[in-house]
């Protein structure tokens, strides 16, 4: 299946030759694919508070940008051309979207962001731009003309509400139809214009900046570092200026601060928690009428369990991280937990995991497998 998805390339070759390096057009990447939901169903999602949505209208130097949630009426009086509706994290609300993401399992889950869908009327686009992330752009219904460029001039227009390249110079152009897919590494300029009413599914990845990681790590250290001692100056000398902070005082402060240390374990603990943290707008809803523990156990052993699509479960050796929390697995839990982290579902539940899974079920992190 991955072979079709990657146009005959094995995941190993794709990673070696294209991932994070160069664009790849894959005709008929998902044979028979013509989308996961109708424009109307997408518009309904864009009216919900908990769903991130955007509406972009314009062309040339003239762009308009609005954030959702929208009202149904907002879509009734729209022009026939030149606008696009974008809905983020479709995989959180549509099981078929989560299943589509699972096809991209050849990229580590820690890198995965979400599945975004766009609906554009003829002429609709988000303008020529570049992104800082890798993306697979899978065409659903309709047709979109993509132009791309590996130009180095990435300057953007001032005074427009979205990021639009000032000088876009297309180098290649393709018309994508249902099932076709375009992979783009970060910073490749691209411009996709709807030929007819069309929907495009963007499989997007996370790539934190060094600054984000650094800030996050400092916050993590704040909770994990405990330093002994207190400022002491038994050899204090009389200062000419009592208002001055002396060199001796600064030297002592420097050596106290230099006691802040971290090792590979701190980095791993931080990385696991940070990378498994859902985005700040993600909330988990506990089940409305929760099963008792004994009924949960019975159903879970019969049908298995699935992770809630919003949950992020990652591991480093036997240490597991789920939605920003960490725990060590016992020897008889590790293999099953790894399988759940890799596949997001587990059919045989070891007895040792039942209570943990029930806690996760009560938090809305995990569900009984509905199939
Ligand atoms: C779109 O689907 O219209 C935009 C996707 C992108 O350019 O990143
Ligand atoms: Co883009």
What small molecules does this complex bind?
Answer: succinic acid, cobalt (II) ion
- CATH top level of the largest domain is Mainly Beta
Give the helix tally. Answer: 11
Q: Tell the overall outline.
A: globular
Indicate the mean pLDDT: 96
Strand percent estimate: 15-25%
Span between termini: 21 Å
Q: Percent range for helical residues? A: 25-40%
Radius of gyration: 25 Å
Number of strands: 17
User: Largest sheet, if any?
Assistant: 8 strands, antiparallel
SSE map:
Layout: H1 2-5, H2 11-17, E1 24-26, H3 39-45, E2 53-59, E3 62-67, H4 72-76, E4 83-87, H5 95-102, E5 112-120, E6 135-139, E7 144-149, E8 172-176, E9 181-184, E10 189-194, E11 198-205, H6 210-224, H7 247-257, H8 264-275, H9 293-303, E12 305-307, E13 313-316, E14 319-322, E15 325-328, H10 331-343, E16 345-346, H11 354-363, E17 366-368
Antiparallel strand pairs: 1-9, 2-3, 2-4, 4-5, 5-11, 6-9, 6-11, 7-8, 7-10, 12-16, 12-17, 13-14, 14-15
The chain binds succinic acid (SIN) and cobalt (II) ion (CO).
The site of succinic acid has 11 residues, from strand 5, strand 6, strand 10 and strand 11.
